[in-house]
Amino acid sequence: MKNFVLFASLGTFFLGQACAESLYCDSPIYCEGPLLKTVQLAQLFPDSKTFVDMPTTQPVDQVLEAFHALGDQPNKTSLQEFVKGHFGEAGSEMEPYDVTIGSLNWLDTIKDTTYRGWVDILHHAWTNLAFKFNTDTLCKGCVSSTLPVERPFVVPGGRFREFYYWDSYFVIEGLLQSGLNDLALDMIENFFDLVERYGFMPNGARIYYLNRSQPPFLAEMVHLYYQKTKDNQFLKKALPVLDKEYQFWRKNTTVTIRQGGKKYKLNRYIVNNHSPRPESYVEDYKTVYNNTQITTQQQQDDLFSDLAAGAESGWDYTSRWTKIKETDGNITSTDILRSLDTHNVIPIDLNALLWSMETHLADWHAHTTTKNNKDASYYRSQAKHRLDALDALLWNETQASFFDYNLTSHAQTSDEYTSASLFPFWLGAVPARVHRSLDRVFDLTRRSLAKYPGILTSTDRNTTMQWDLPNGWPPLQYVAIQAMHNVDAWLKEAKYKDLAKVLAKRMSASAFCSWYLTGGSIPGELNKLDNTTDQGHMFEKFDVRSLTASGFGGEYTVQVGFGWTNGVVLWIMNNYNDLVAPDCTSSSIYPLP
Ligand SMILES: *[C@@H]1O[C@H](CO)[C@@H](O)[C@H](O)[C@H]1NC(C)=O
Ligand SMILES: *[C@@H]1O[C@H](CO)[C@@H](O)[C@H](O)[C@H]1NC(C)=O
Ligand SMILES: *[C@@H]1O[C@H](CO)[C@@H](O)[C@H](O)[C@H]1NC(C)=O
Ligand SMILES: *[C@@H]1O[C@H](CO)[C@@H](O)[C@H](O)[C@H]1NC(C)=O
Ligand SMILES: *[C@@H]1O[C@H](CO)[C@@H](O)[C@H](O)[C@H]1NC(C)=O
Ligand SMILES: *[C@@H]1O[C@H](CO)[C@@H](O)[C@H](O)[C@H]1NC(C)=O
Ligand SMILES: *[C@@H]1O[C@H](CO)[C@@H](O)[C@H](O)[C@H]1NC(C)=O
Ligand SMILES: *[C@@H]1O[C@H](CO)[C@@H](O)[C@H](O)[C@H]1NC(C)=O
Ligand SMILES: *[C@@H]1O[C@H](CO)[C@@H](O)[C@H](O)[C@H]1NC(C)=O
């Protein structure tokens, strides 16, 4: 009833949505049920996500009726006709948002003319990624899987036609670099509305993402925007929303760990789910059902949950979450995925983010209330307890590194390097004794970087999963570079300055060369390669084994666009204005200092 009042007050904007009153995924078309199952298993489209992004062109009851009229086992042809007759194009409830992009005020500080021209192109590329929902395009009674928001937003690109939670932090960083503060604010305020409505921030703007979140970056977005604008009204508005989001993580994902007579509380990714993710339906269906090992209902439910929790982590998928860590002659990549154990891992990155959320909330509550600092002390104490737990459980003194923690073995995953371990140094979640090891904390990272010419890998495991070797991801380069800057500041010496710069060079060269080699050009500066037909792609991930290749693997083909890559490159270019574009057709190399 409470929700009804909320929606009524928002007026007609929400009419025509599949799920306006629902707080979780329950649409008979887009979430679960015979229609979804039959259409998805018929594999009418190469990507499972396409169908669930198609709005209906007839009222929902007529769509369901027409489906039932097809009988028990409709063939592929009649399903194709059914979909064609009752659904519109994927994403057609969205329309481009006309963002006005002025000139970039720091463009002239970039010394290299090629990079300067490329940055100008990236600065203007937000136009291709900015959208708003236009639910007026839906007919009366028709539905779509959209979670509608009132303001415009930027999407990652490719199959990711709607906005995503953690991607948006890196997009917002880029928008702020581009001086598009209003669009950054629009995105953050959309998130506020979603948290108000659902009590947490969903993975992305689709109802099939309503059963899970993604790495909690909202407080970091608020922090970025507030640092830039010092807008206290904005901060006041953010606080109750972040309080609410914090309680979601606290209540839904906390585990208590006993060690050495003490109790610690940390968080993990965990999702209540017992069916294929609608947007990866065929993939999940095969993973769970097409084998002889996973037979009981309980095993199946657990795997569906761990698949969804892996997606919640943003790292879908990685050996960090699987029991089997390597392929061999008899172990396929699906076998690895079947060994998912996501909910039994305490991830270092998630807990660093939550520490940061607690610390920001303590600071901001203290800043905005003058007399009653009950909230500030609550968050201060939560942050302190978490830091104690990071110290006791996740920090490894011998290796001078943080690791994930395995709830089953009650031990660190201390034989597995992951660049997620750098999050505490980016966010400042660093226990006192760690300060004595600051001159060693990048030893493992440096060793990993020394093995390959490209950017920093996500893990050292060579699986076929996309968050493992050989893939490196732009957001993790941002985290690593910032972590190195911070540690230098704490050490009061420029110990990691050059290492950070090499990483900045490798990140920009990887993005630039893979763009150039797919047809990118700069008028009057850089001619398009003769052997290319496209116009240059910005990729979502890169192969760490070279400076010229996009990444690959995982459950979908490599995507171009790309929100977080553009954001991270703009940030790097504004912080390192003397980088020089490489010759992408000869093998350039950036050795470690
Ligand atoms: C598919 O089913 C429809 C309706 O039952 C039928 O008319 C059609 O011949 C079938 N097509 C094929 C290729 O089997
Ligand atoms: C969080 O937990 C509450 C209480 O158990 C539950 O009702 C809700 O669905 C959970 N939220 C999500 C997104 O799973
Ligand atoms: C999402 O969660 C709700 C409530 O727990 C559940 O009824 C529904 O089946 C879930 N959806 C999926 C796709 O698992
Ligand atoms: C099911 O698994 C078998 C054996 O691993 C494989 O050959 C087959 O292609 C799989 N079927 C589907 C529909 O993926
Ligand atoms: C966690 O530890 C258990 C027990 O040692 C092990 O079987 C499992 O593979 C580990 N999980 C992960 C994700 O490494
Ligand atoms: C694969 O399985 C076969 C039969 O069980 C076994 O003989 C062989 O050694 C296995 N190969 C590897 C690489 O484990
Ligand atoms: C730290 O790492 C070493 C080497 O992997 C391991 O032997 C040790 O148990 C780890 N320490 C803790 C506290 O887990
Ligand atoms: C990963 O393993 C595959 C085959 O097992 C091999 O071809 C590839 O070169 C390896 N990649 C790396 C980065 O070691
Ligand atoms: C296109 O030409 C460039 C320059 O000669 C070369 O480096 C690149 O590998 C070529 N790309 C393809 C796809 O052949």
Percent of residues in beta strands? 5-15%
- What's the story with the biggest beta sheet? 3 strands, antiparallel
- Shape descriptor reads globular
Count of individual beta strands? 12
Q: What is the structural class?
A: mainly alpha
Q: Give the rounded overall mean pLDDT.
A: 93
Q: Kindly, what is the distance between the CA atoms of the first and last residues, rounded to a whole number of angstroms?
A: 62 Å
Counted by DSSP, the helix tally is: 21
Ligands in the model, by name, code or SMILES, are: 2-acetamido-2-deoxy-beta-D-glucopyranose
Level of helix content?
40-55%
- Any idea what the radius of gyration is? 24 Å
- The stretches of 5 or more residues where confidence is low (pLDDT under 50) are 1-20
Strand order of the largest sheet: 1-2-3
Pfam families: Trehalase
Keywords: Glycosidase, Hydrolase, Signal
Protein name: Trehalase
Family: Belongs to the glycosyl hydrolase 37 family.
Describe this structure in words.
Residues 1-20 form the signal peptide. GO terms for molecular function: alpha,alpha-trehalase activity. It catalyses: alpha,alpha-trehalose + H2O = alpha-D-glucose + beta-D-glucose. Helix 9 (181-198) packs antiparallel against helix 10. The strands form five sheets. The protein has a three-stranded antiparallel β-sheet. A three-stranded antiparallel β-sheet has the order 6-9-10. It is mainly alpha-helical. The chain has helices spanning 2-9, 34-41, 48-52, 60-69, 76-86, 113-124, 126-129, 165-177, 181-198, 218-229, 232-253, 281-289, 297-312, 333-338, 348-368, 374-394, 423-427, 443-451, 474-491, 497-516, 563-575; strands spanning 94-96, 130-133, 153-154, 254-259, 262-267, 345-346, 395-396, 401-402, 405-406, 411-412, 471-472, 542-543. The chain has 21 helices and twelve strands. The protein starts with a helix and ends in an 18-residue tail after the last helix. 49% of the residues are buried. Strand 7 (395-396) and strand 8 (401-402) form a beta hairpin. Mean pLDDT is 93; it is low at 1-20. Among the domains are: 34-86, no CATH class; 281-345, no CATH class. One 2-acetamido-2-deoxy-beta-D-glucopyranose binds next to loops.
